[in-house]
């Protein structure tokens, strides 16, 4: 996720662009850049780090420009450097663009463009500038449309041409873009905050729409260049609401981001026809991969629960014994490791001190050490010898939601890749991938039950304690649901494997001790059902997460949340969502500071 701002009108563009970028800094800020016109010539300035660094560089410049584009970057392809910061240009330096999203087929496109093009960055976005260059014969919109017809992936895009300082072409596919309408001026941005001080009149571009903008005119077309009529809307949001895209908290926005970002985690990383995944960043030959006899997943907090899901996946699909270690324990227990051990560090921030130290220890002992990380260029990403970015975009709420989902999705791809090199059949691989592709739509159907889950939260919010139960791959789901509840609502909760409850936790049960049980239709359904019967007999209130169509579930429980069916190994990608929503709505009902819960930090860089 990145932030884009563009302006065309009669005001000085520079302050609008810089202040706009500051408002979009929440979308990521590893580097930033602007392109404006100085004496009729385009001029691009970039800086690594926060927007303030860019502003500092611009202090000494005196641009007299009423037109320009700007970008704050959240790296996805290419490390955090000035040359990788946007805007990017083609060979002539005349076509200048800022891009938010991922051009999935950029390698292919680069190959087709041939050796005549000179690239200044490692980004997928720059390839797009060169692609537009090949189609440009004086009509910028046509050239952009021709190029986009060949692109696979996502984009929020603003493009300008040095010979046409009165024209801006913008396009959207999967990454948001808003156009603000002023008096003989237009604003473009990733959300409405940069333009709120100037206008409340906006149009929201939809996927597949392109706007061709001059100082006095806005013309919207689809990707086939057919006219599209847009409705002008009046924005009522204040700045904070606009950043959260109308959601009251970042956490809720991030929960609702999941159907989109899970696609970013898997896009371009699997081959349906071969029933396998190919995560190139692993940097291991097939032979090295086949030599792996043991996998250790090291993480903290939510990432460690994603790791437990990964353990089930690696063992089931790849047949490789897999352990999950909480990082702070691993580093002090003298673990047994050799050169047939593969260690993954899983971390949203890529900065967690315990995880980092544990990975260093594993490396010292001769293991293959790789990262599964969200923040590009973070310390864990740099200190491992390869790995995969989960592409969840910036996660701002302290309680992790979408990063967890994307970690699980990437772990599944790894398990498939290892599995297919071992004994996993092509047919099973294909069935899993097909089921994975269907996950985003199924997630949406769960999220549409948010209001119903809110009612449940109201009903149970005064509980002092709660127990979360799950079996098999739903045990880590129970752990994650319980963690979400305790960290943001401060209600004490525990998670147990269903079958283990009778060895301890059952003593706690009473009519005042609600139990959230995950009882979806899988191979352990009957076993879990028996555990739920045991709870019922102790008169504890029961909320079930059950599979759609399981009409008998309600006979066992006070309340049931239904989720769509999927293959068992993929269930965490769905079953975690109602638990996230339950924790969220409970915390809101109790008046908690949902995005910044007490005593917690987003990134824990101390031991
Ligand atoms: C903190 C956060 C958690 C997170 C954990 C691991 O405790 O509050 O939400 O799961 O750190 O963070 P990481 O960035 O390594 O995933």
Short description:
36% of the residues lie in helices and 22% in strands. It is built from 20 helices and 26 strands. Helix 9 (301-318) packs antiparallel against helix 17.
As a percent range, the share of helical residues equals 25-40%
Q: What is the overall shape?
A: globular
- Sheet/helix structural class: alpha/beta
Mean pLDDT across all amino acids: 94
User: Which regions contain 5 or more consecutive residues with pLDDT less than 50?
Assistant: none
Beta-strand segment tally: 26
Mind explaining what this structure looks like?
It is a single chain. With 607 residues, the protein is α/β, with parallel strands linked by helices. It is globular, with a radius of gyration of 25 Å. An 8-stranded antiparallel beta sheet has the order 3-2-4-1-10-9-11-14, covered by helices on one side. It has a 6-stranded antiparallel beta sheet with strand order 5-6-7-8-12-13, with helices on one face. The mean pLDDT is 94. Helix content is 36%, strand content 22%. The chain is built from 20 helices and 26 strands. 6-O-phosphono-alpha-D-glucopyranose (G6P) binds next to α9.
Supply database-style keywords.
single chain; 607 residues; alpha/beta; eight-stranded antiparallel beta sheet; six-stranded antiparallel beta sheet; 20 helices; 26 strands; globular; binds 6-O-phosphono-alpha-D-glucopyranose
Show the helix and strand layout.
Elements: E1 3-8, H1 13-23, E2 31-38, E3 41-48, H2 51-58, E4 67-73, E5 88-89, E6 95-100, H3 106-113, H4 124-135, H5 140-148, E7 155-161, E8 168-173, E9 178-181, E10 186-189, E11 201-204, E12 209-213, E13 218-222, E14 233-234, H6 239-243, H7 250-266, E15 270-271, E16 276-277, H8 286-291, E17 294-299, H9 301-318, E18 322-326, H10 327-330, E19 341-347, H11 353-364, E20 368-373, H12 379-383, E21 387-389, H13 402-421, H14 426-437, H15 439-447, H16 450-460, E22 465-470, H17 475-489, E23 492-497, E24 515-519, H18 525-537, E25 542-547, H19 553-556, E26 559-563, H20 571-589
Parallel strand pairs: 17-18, 17-19, 19-20, 20-21, 22-23, 22-24, 24-25, 25-26
Antiparallel strand pairs: 1-4, 1-10, 2-3, 2-4, 5-6, 6-7, 7-8, 8-12, 9-10, 9-11, 11-14, 12-13, 15-16
Bound molecules: 6-O-phosphono-alpha-D-glucopyranose.
């Amino acid at each position: 996720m990145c932030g884009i701002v563009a302006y065309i009108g009669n005001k000085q563009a520079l302050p609008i662009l810089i202040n706009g970028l500051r408002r979009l800094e929440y979308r990521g800020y590893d580097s930033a850049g602007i392109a404006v016109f100085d004496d009729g010539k385009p001029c691009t300035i970039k800086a690594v780090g926060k927007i303030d660094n860019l502003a500092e560089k611009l202090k000494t410049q005196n641009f007299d420009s009423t037109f320009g584009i700007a970008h704050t970057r959240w790296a996805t392809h290419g490390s955090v450097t000035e040359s990788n910061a946007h805007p990017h240009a083609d060979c002539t330096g005349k076509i200048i663009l800022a891009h938010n999203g991922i051009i999935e087929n950029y390698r292919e496109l680069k190959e087709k463009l041939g050796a005549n093009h000179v690239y200044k960055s490692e980004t997928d976005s720059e390839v797009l500038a060169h692609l537009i260059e090949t189609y440009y014969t004086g009509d910028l919109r046509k050239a952009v449309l021709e190029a986009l017809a060949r692109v696979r992936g996502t984009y929020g895009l603003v493009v300008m041409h040095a010979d046409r300082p009165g024209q801006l072409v913008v396009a959207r596919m999967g990454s948001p873009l808003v156009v603000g309408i002023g008096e003989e001026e237009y604003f473009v941005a990733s959300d409405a905050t940069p333009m709120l001080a100037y206008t409340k009149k906006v149009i929201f571009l939809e996927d597949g729409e392109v706007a061709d903008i001059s100082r006095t005119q806005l013309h919207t077309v689809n990707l086939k260049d057919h006219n599209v009529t847009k409705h002008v809307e009046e924005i009522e949001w204040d700045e904070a609401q606009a950043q959260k895209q109308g959601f009251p908290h970042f956490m809720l926005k991030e929960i609702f981001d999941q159907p989109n970002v899970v696609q970013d985690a898997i896009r371009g990383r699997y081959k349906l026809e071969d029933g396998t995944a190919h995560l190139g960043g692993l940097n291991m030959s097939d032979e090295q991969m086949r030599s792996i006899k043991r996998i250790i997943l090291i993480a903290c907090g939510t990432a460690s629960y994603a790791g437990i899901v990964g353990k089930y996946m690696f063992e089931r699909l790849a047949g490789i014994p897999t352990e999950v270690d909480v990082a702070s324990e691993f580093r002090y227990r003298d673990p047994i490791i050799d050169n047939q051990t593969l260690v993954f560090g899983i971390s949203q921030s890529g900065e967690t001190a315990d995880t980092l130290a544990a990975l260093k220890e594993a490396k010292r002992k001769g293991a293959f050490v790789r990262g599964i990380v969200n923040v590009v260029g973070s310390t864990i990403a740099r200190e491992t010898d390869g790995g995969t970015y989960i592409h969840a975009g910036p996660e701002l709420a302290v309680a992790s939601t979408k990063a967890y989902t994307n970690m699980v999705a990437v772990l599944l791809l790894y398990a498939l890749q290892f599995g297919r090199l071992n004994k996993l059949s092509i047919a099973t691989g294909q069935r899993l991938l097909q089921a994975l592709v269907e996950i985003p739509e199924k997630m949406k159907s769960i999220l549409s039950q948010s209001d119903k889950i809110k009612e449940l939260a109201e009903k149970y919010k005064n509980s002092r304690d709660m127990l979360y139960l799950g079996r098999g791959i739903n045990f880590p789901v129970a752990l994650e649901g319980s963690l979400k509840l305790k960290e943001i609502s401060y209600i004490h909760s525990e998670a147990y494997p269903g079958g283990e409850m009778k060895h301890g936790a059952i003593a706690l049960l009473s009519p005042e001790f609600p139990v959230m049980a995950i009882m979806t239709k899988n191979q352990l359904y009957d076993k879990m059902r028996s555990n739920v019967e045991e709870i019922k007999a102790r008169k504890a209130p029961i909320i079930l997460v059950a599979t759609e169509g399981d009409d008998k579930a309600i006979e066992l429980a006070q309340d049931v949340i239904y989720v769509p069916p999927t293959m068992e190994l993929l269930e965490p990608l769905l079953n975690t969502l109602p638990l996230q929503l339950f924790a969220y709505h409970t915390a809101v009902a109790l008046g908690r500071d949902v995005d910044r819960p007490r005593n917690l930090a987003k990134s824990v860089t101390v031991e």
